[in-house]
Design brief:
Shape: rod-shaped
Number of helices: 2
Strand order of the largest sheet: 1-2
Radius of gyration: 25 Å
Length: 67
């Protein structure tokens, strides 16, 4: 039996540092879990940009009787 040496192209995930061996992971630079988290964070960030509070709109508290 011959000793064979083979190599697998691998890199580290840009987010967590985990070992990437899949072709998609090597192409994207992220593992599947980290890529999912990045997409979710981006969606959350976009939603927050469209949010406003009553304070942003200049709302004031209603006046009470006797004040």
């Amino acid at each position: 039996m011959h000793d064979e040496v083979f190599t697998i192209p691998a890199r580290r995930c840009k987010r967590c540092g985990g070992l990437l061996t899949s072709s998609q992971g090597l192409r994207d630079g992220y593992g599947p879990c980290c890529l999912r988290k990045i997409k979710q964070e981006e969606a959350d960030r976009k939603m927050m940009e469209n949010q406003c509070s009553l304070f942003d709109m200049g709302a004031t508290a209603p006046k009470r009787e006797g004040d």
